What does this fold into?
Amino acid sequence: MRILLKIAALLAFCSVQAQAHPLPGTSLGADVALPPALAARLPATNAILAIAQSGSASGTGTSLSGCDGSGTNDTRACIQAYLDAMPTTGGVLNLGTGLYRIDDPLNISKPIIVVGSGGGKGQYISGCVRGLRAGAANKDLVILSASGSGIRSTCIDSGAGNTSGSAVKIVGPYRSVFVTDTQINNAFNGIAISGDTDGPSANATIANNVFKPNGASGGAAITVGAASTDGHTVDLFIYANVIYCGEPAAASLSSGMVFKDAGGPLVFGNAIYGCNVGTAITPGANQTVVWGHFNGTLLGDSSKTNDLLIDTQASTAQIRGTNFTGSWTSWAGGANVLIQDSGSSNNIVGLHFAGHRNYMDGNNIGFDVRAGTKFTIDASTICARGTSSGTAIKLSGSASDSAIRDNSIGVCEALSGQIATGISVVQSSAFVGIISGNDLSNSTTSLNLALTGSGIGNNATAVITDNMGLDNLSGSVTAAATVTLSSYPRFIINGSTTVTTINGGWGNRQITMIATSGTGLTFATGGNICNALTTTQNQMVTAYYDPGWGCWHMR
It folds into this structure.
């Protein structure tokens, strides 16, 4: 017990001393140092001492000794000398309350933690009064290239006109690098983190930061994996960041988050507003974004083009097994969510949305899915504010094997109006998938099924059942040699012309028909009807489309 009490007393003394004095080798530039015996016992690499050190700057009101903290002159060499003088085991460099102009990159190649005296004043304040300021255009400001290195509680200003360069560049292969509680203003790239083609960069943390990108085309607040391939930027934690590109959104060409190559990123609790694209998953040649989890995060709001863009950039790109749970997209200038395959990779597989909220702007599209397989939307809300000529979910192009289940589609809660189309399937693939359990009752056209592939005809593979606004409604057609059905499950057939062909089927579809003609109605073979049948007036007929036989069985 006495030993424990002594340790506790030592740690308390250490904390008090660290508030008043800098650590040797990690200095604030004061002339006073810790007693040699205590410094030897608890070196700068000790985590307890590091925590104590990190809070000392605001209390001292000092700057790094010998470095101009006015923000006027280039202090890169001075600060780099502090970094170079640290042991290979690393330590903490406390910037104090100075504002340091940097004309060339600071290179942190040891496990050093740079700590500022505050990360800024929030998303609407774009100037740093202390921290780091870029003094030259289109250059990286800080380069982290060591496992265990990081930046915390630092305000970083970059040049508003930059068209390249990053405020913080994290290069691999290194592990457990972090940037937290930091504000980054006007950078072309705020934080660029990447492994390399030879090995993975793993377990980086980007958290509790505020970004105001400079709005330049191609820039982003956070860019992941630009220099790696095969998913070698691994197991990132990106959470609780605020990215504010500006208002109105049309003024910004920057993106919020861009994922080029990433394996298993964990992304949660972020807020992205007013960017060109909120979140972009756009791998290039030999790049992969796989097993991502985007949970409880605002992927984009009021974006100029798309809140979420998923798109390959090369034939060797891959996007696989990525989940969006409890996420949000809202009020994009184009489709809120756009999924396409510009690189013709045919390798977008397994994108899953659950509990997602998708608020459409006016007459646009909620989900515009032009490519990919095994795409699912479950228990989500896709809606417009009021009457809209838009489409909640559109499946087109090579999209296939989708599952759209148990969603609320149409008008947002507590509002009135109609959306023009709930679900539109105009894809070229016959493999539609499952559309079930959805509330489509606030859609003028609940389901538009118009497959475009040659020869698909009635041979689509689909399960469409138990949808409000569809299964509880009836259609009306006029008897003719060829009758084309909508997606309703029941039809009134007016007239007495013999029917030989029924279009609008899909594999295993079952419908009910009632003839109103006083003379009855005949269904004859010769088209795609398996067996002839003659009905009387008001007799109910059941028809089942058998894809194996390629015709309707009548009963």
Remarks:
- Residues 1-61 have pLDDT under 50 and may be disordered.
- The radius of gyration is 31 Å.
- The longest helix spans residues 2-20.
- The CA atoms of residues 103 and 136 lie 5 Å apart.
